[in-house]
Amino acid sequence: MAHAAELYVQEDSATAMMGSYGSAVRLVADAAAEILVLWATNQPAMRQHNSFVRQSSHSLSLDTCGHLLSILQSPSSMGTPGVTGAVMWDSGVVLAKFIEHAVDSKRLLLKGKKVVELGSGCGLIGCVAAILGASVILTDLHDRLKLLKKNVDANVGNQGNVRGSARVMELTWGDDLGPVFLNPLPDFVIGSDVIYSEDAVRDLIQTLRQLSGTHTTIFLAGELRNDAVLECFLEAAMEVFQIGYIDQAQWHPEYRSQRVVLFVLVKKLGQEKNVI
Ligand SMILES: C[S@@+](CC[C@H](N)C(=O)[O-])C[C@H]1O[C@@H](n2cnc3c(N)ncnc32)[C@H](O)[C@@H]1O
Question: Taking the domain 4-48+90-267, which CATH number applies?
Answer without folding.
Answer: 3.40.50.150
